[in-house]
Amino acid sequence: MEAWRCVRRGYSCCAVGRGRSVWLGGGGGGDGPRYPMLPYHLQSLGRDRITPWDFSQRFCWNRHISSCMRWPGNYSWAPYPYLSSQHCQLNWRPPCLFLPNRSQFQHWNWRPDNFAHTSLFHLSSYIMDSEGDKTSSKRQKTQGVIKRHWEYLCHHNKENMKILGDKHVDQKYKDEKEKFEFSVMSYNILSQDLLEDNSYLYRHCRKPVLIWGFRFPNILREIKHMDADILCLQEVQEDHYRKEIKPNLESLGYHCEYKMRTGRKPDGCAICFKCSKFTLLSANPVEFYRRDIPLLDRDNVGLVLLLQPKFHCTVSPICVANTHLLYNPRRGDIKLTQLAMLLAEISSVAHQKDGTVCPIIICGDFNSVPGSPLYSFIKEGKLNYEGLAIGKVSGQEQSPRGQRILSIPIWPPSLGISQNCVYEIPQVTRVEKAEEIDVTQEHLEKPEVLVAAKKLSSNLHHHFSLSSVYSHYLPNTGIPEVTTCHSKNAVTVDYIFYSTEKEAINTQQGKKGTEVALVGGLKLLGRLSLLTEEDLWTVNGLPNENNSSDHLPLLAKFRLEL
Questions:
Q1: Is residue 264's pLDDT more than 70?
Q2: Which N-terminal stretch is annotated as signal sequence (predicted)?
């Protein structure tokens, strides 16, 4: 097959047709072609694949064809090589005259008859070196793709396997029936309105890659390729959700639940699950804004679903939560209170009638870094915040400006949530019961003193045994992994937390109702690897040509066991 080569700008590409492919080298070293970071199916994660272009992107709408043309307004060079008419029929003339804000160039006409839907195309690295291509960042910018590998974390112990002819096969079949495997994806897809309102974070990006018409097909393709059973999405813009995201996901077999942020905020959180694998038992939105509590004046939200696995009647339901906590690094008091409200709702939903707690998965953008007090509280289940500076709660700033010390307690009693992050019984009910039994005033005062002492405690607790899917550092080098990367920062703020395998917390004598028994433990089978900041800047950070959010999607696979 005749190869395609772009003579200018140092482009290189891989042309594919009729079962043959040619790599033209350049830009990416001598290791051969790079491949897209996202695979087709879960079982293919970590393998080398080449991305097939969607119909809309194959025609490069809102883009031009020749690498020798420029966008109006000094846009960066487009990374598409010249396509010869010997490979696909193109009738077009150089768009010397065009008007601003036009979605297409004048006098060009695609003829896709010979450009089959199975055609494959790969863009290799290129370097922007002309004056018009330079961005505000001092880093050297390249454009390409990075592979992410699937990391298997659970291996069968062959030494413990007893092969006894047909009996082993029967036992294996019986064991498989008692196990339920599913995958979870958490993804902050970057609201278009927020992108435009915070454009200073994306000065390193070429303007065409920031257009929603370019971004959404990329995001949808990522979701299709990951093929997760449960999707937890943040920064889902309401109009895009209603017109594009929900219809497309429903066509893929997902049921979607959505909670929009309060106030006039344009985005929210969504949890989508495959109807073929789960049945919805309950959907519980959580609003962190409270009109009567000055501390809670922000419009962040959460969403908690209770899902029942299909065809596994004996398997426990699964509680799935999704949230996007406040960003402001100097308001750790608000972040901790929002987290406590979410945990209280999860506790209410996950507790079953028999007193047990079903498996729990918590996804989201927590706007807190690994090792921070907020992160440690989630994993360890306890936090003593006495003397803790308000700006150090999330660990987002090395030298936080907010040095005010957290008050004790952080939130007022009127919120109705205890320091154990569960809903409290209204105080009025307790007083009424006391009056019914006609106790003396002395007996009434004693509980009040105890309650006051409890309110002054600086210890927060929750009763879930939670682990993080990711370790947050590369095992060999200790280099931090990142989940978001833009012009100002590159850190980890996105997480998937899950309740570990079967565990019971013994009750203390004389204290009934404090037992937390987890049933049907979750085992982490594998995860899609994360990247380092250095990795992401080799492809010009985020968003870029292939990854259309400023966050990376997280993906994990679990096994639910009886």
A1: yes
A2: none
- Pick the range with the lowest mean pLDDT from 32-41, 64-73, 263-272, 434-443: 64-73
* CA 271/CA 258 separation, integer angstroms: 7
- The separation between CA 100 and the C-alpha centre of its own chain, rounded to angstroms, equals 36
Residue 159 φ then ψ, to 5°: -65, -30
77 and 9 Cβ atoms separated by less than 8 Å = yes
Inter-residue contact 480 to 531 (CB < 8 Å):
no
Percent of the chain surpassing pLDDT 90 = 56
Q: What's the CA gap between 496 and 357, in Å, rounded?
A: 19
Residue 511: both structure tokens together: 């204290």
Predicted model pTM: 0.71
Residue pointed to by tokens 């009638």: 353
> b/e map of 537-558 (b: 16 or more CB within 10 Å)?
bbbbbbbbbbbbbbbbbbbbbb
CB 64 within 8 Å of CB 77 = no
Burial 61-75 (b: 16+ CB within 10 A, else e): eebbbbbebbbeeeb
Buried b (16+ CB within 10 A) or exposed e, 193-225: bebeeeeebbebbbebbbbbebbbbbbbbbbeb
Whole-angstrom distance, CA of residue 553 vs CA of residue 318:
21
Measure the CA–CA gap between 211 and 240, rounded to whole angstroms: 13
Among candidates 233, 530, 467, which has minimal Cα distance to 365? 233
Q: If you write DSSP's letter for every residue of 455-475 in order, what string do you get? A: HT--EEE----EEES--SB-T
Domains, the chain? 178-420+456-502+519-560 (3.60.10.10)
What letter does residue 541 receive in the DSSP assignment? S
Per-residue pLDDT at 562: 66
Higher-confidence residue of 202 and 434: namely 202
CB 365 within 8 A of CB 325: yes
Residues present in the chain in total: 562
pLDDT digits (tens, 9 = 90+) for 282-298: 999 999 999 999 999 99
CA 57 distance to own-chain centroid = 24
**Cα–Cα separations (whole angstroms), residue 49 to 18, 46, 146, 148:** 17, 9, 11, 11
Residue with tokens 């080098």: 477
pLDDT of 97 > 60? The answer is no
Single out the residue of 387, 383, 359 nearest to residue 371, CA to CA. Answer: 383
Rounded-to-integer distance, Cα 216 and Cα 556, Å:
23
- Calculate the average pLDDT of the chain: 75
| Distance of alpha carbon 506 from alpha carbon 483, whole angstroms | 37
Q: Tell me the pLDDT band of 178, cut-offs 50, 70 and 90.
A: low
Q: How far apart are CA 313 and CA 300, in angstroms?
A: 35
pLDDT at 21: 40
DSSP 67: T
pLDDT of residue 467: 97
Nearest-CA neighbor of 335 among 292, 383, 263?
383
3-state SS class at 194: helix
Q: Would you call 483 exposed, middle or buried from its count of C-beta atoms within 10 A (0-12, 13-18, 19+)? A: buried
Percentage of the chain beyond pLDDT 70 is 61
Can you give the pLDDT at residue 314?
A: 75
